[in-house]
Amino acid sequence: MSTPMVAARLNQMPLTRWHKRIAVIVGISLFFDLFDIYLSGVLGTVLTGAFHIPKSEQALLLSSAFLGMFIGSIGFNALADRVGRKAAFLGILSTYSVFTFIAAFSPNAAFLIVFRFLAGLGIGALLPLCDVYLSEIFPAHNRGRIMAWTYTLEFCATPVEGFLARALVTTHFLMAGWRWLFVIGSIGAIIVWAMQRHLPESPRWLESAGRHQDAERILARFLEEAPSSATQVKGPTANVVEPKRVPLGTLFTPTYAKRTIMLWIFQILQTFGYYGFGTLVPLVLASKGLTITTSLTYAAVSFIGYPIGSLLSVPIVERIERKWIVVGAAFCMAVFGILFGMTAQPALIMLFGFLYTLSSNIFSNGYHIFQAEIYPTAVRATAVGTAYSLSRLMSGLMPFILLPVLHAHGATAMFSVVAGAMVLLMIDVGALGPKTTGRALEDVNERVIVQEQGPNVGM
Questions:
Q1: What CATH number did the domain enclosing 400 receive?
Q2: pLDDT at position 237
Q3: Residues 264-279 pLDDT 10s
């Protein structure tokens, strides 16, 4: 048995250059995750004309990648609990890159739908796995802040993609401009795959898997860049609870069943607010009578709010309890969504779109940090990936729910449905969510298991 020091040292360690390199690599990885998600919305209006897709089939085109993400999020994150976080990372990006590149040369809508689904099998698992990995690597006292910085790098993808789409979709160089967006995503994923090979395995996962020497070896690399005082844990260690192997059924013990139900309900509902805007806003603007070029321009301006909102979350994620950040931001999304749906003035469309995306990324950063903090290490990736897969499934089903409302009743009615989902989400998280801000992962999780099941669990 190893000494109970791995988690304790990780929690008390100052940020090192290696921590920062990890944050940059993961942030760039997530850039391409978001790039792919919003590719659906940006291309929805373009491909409708290119492949002569009727409105009745728009939802299938938009949902194909999300349905793949639903399956991939469960499969790859379950694999991450078995073989490690790093191996799962490499498999995810390989799958995404290959099928996205093939999708760029789709001769028809059916071919594109199939390969968007296959690409989704890979990319769908990336975001929840990154949540898990980052939560296990960074120290407890600034875990939220550094994760928020990482997500800020990710969210630069939305305005970049918006302006790229605005510039490329009307061009033709060797092939149609929209195809180049797929090629860019595929090549970017290959570059990130090469960068991820230099990531360390999670010491917490290694400890939970019984690989104590490997965990100590990774920890030693962090300590090489830390001050000498960081090599010693401050305070008593008798009560330190280390990650250990626990059965998957732990997720349905009294305490964790409450958390699991809360997160499953949350993931079903948050899709309407977060992805409902990002993937459908070009179609919403088209329903207001705007041209494709104009709607893409307005969407690109609105998308600037994503990185700014993420940046604004940095100073508050360690000052305000995570679950209340989620609740407050959800309220703002409900209000700004209805205002966005009601207005027809160009300046107000861009203003409320900007405020919506700004609020939604304070919301997003809060919940991505939060969801990775509420489960024990040994089953964290499976638990988070399974819950997050529900959001991918709902993202696939969402066009079938929201587009009929949009076509039949208009944008205000559609955003009223979104607002209703946000209100239910606020009640869910406010009533059932645990407190996690500033607490060690082991205090939030493993200590609960010891209290409920005894000190010998997992032995």
A1: 1.20.1250.20
A2: 46
A3: 999 999 989 887 776 6
